[in-house]
Amino acid sequence: LELRFADEHSDLFDYVVGAYLFREEYQQFNLQSPTTSFANVRTLSRNGQVSESIALFGQTDINIRENLAFVLGGRLTRDDKDFELNTTLQNGTPIRLQSSESWDQATWKVGLNYFVRDGMMTYVSVATGYKGGGYNSRATVAQNIGPYDPEEV
After folding, report:
1. pLDDT band at 46 (very low <50, low <70, confident <90, very high)
2. Has residue 6 got a pLDDT over 80?
3. 48: Cα separation from own chain's centroid
4. Share above pLDDT 70 across residues of the chain, in percent, rounded to a whole number
5. Distance between CA atoms of residues 28 and 30, nearest Å
6. Any residues with CB less than 8 A from the CB of 10 and at least 6 apart, and which?
7. Taking the model in full, what pTM does it have?
8. Quick one: DSSP state of residue 66?
9. Measured at the alpha carbon of residue 118, what is the angle toward residues 117 and 121, in degrees to the nearest 5?
10. What does the alpha-carbon distance between residue 38 and residue 146 come to, in Å, rounded to a whole number?
């Protein structure tokens, strides 16, 4: 769900502000075999995850001249993940895990838009990005289950 409010406030600037909400829940069941043969299937693993992400964001274009705009934007994000795993690893080690993790991140954007003529614009911008961390439900060794860290660029 995303809710946005945009306004061309004046000849000087326009803006957009909004909120974002995402929720996903899954259950996964896997047959496991130490070989490629179905005859050796011995373990059914079960895992599940509930993911929630909430963000507030905004961006404004400040019109410096008729054909040049300064762009400034930002986003605050919070990701929550609840993970459950019930499996036996290939080496025979049983794993029962329940784990929760949360991440918060602020990202930003700064840029310039230059309108060459009607229907043609060029721009330059610098921005940061973020992707929340998580869990590896398909791990074959315990240390790869996670949680793993978020990605930041």
Report:
1. confident
2. yes
3. 18
4. 89
5. 7
6. none
7. 0.79
8. T
9. 60
10. 29
Q: Which amino acid type is present at position 57? A: F
End-to-end CA distance of the chain: 25
Distance of CA 138 to the CA centre of its chain: 19
H or E element in which residue 28 lies: strand 13-32
Tracing tokens 């929550």 back to the chain, one arrives at 80
Instruction: Find tokens 């602020």 and name the residue.
Output: 106
Structure tokens given for 71: 């762009």
- Residue-level length of the chain: 153
The token duo for 24 is: 């996903």
**Residue 92, strand partner residues:** none
The token pair at 134 is: 């998580």
The set of residues, in sequence order, having a beta carbon less than 8 Å from that of 60 and lying 6+ positions away, is: 13, 14, 15, 16, 71, 72, 73
Nearest-angstrom CA–CA distance, 7 and 36? 59
DSSP, residue by residue, 84-150: EEEEE-TTS-EEEEEEEEEEEEEEEEEEEEEEEETTEEEEEEEE--EE--B--TT-SSGGGSSPBPP
Q: Please name which of 54, 51, 60 lies closest in space to residue 1, comparing C-alpha atoms.
A: 54
For residue 141, the one-letter residue type is V
d(CA 67, CA 76): 30
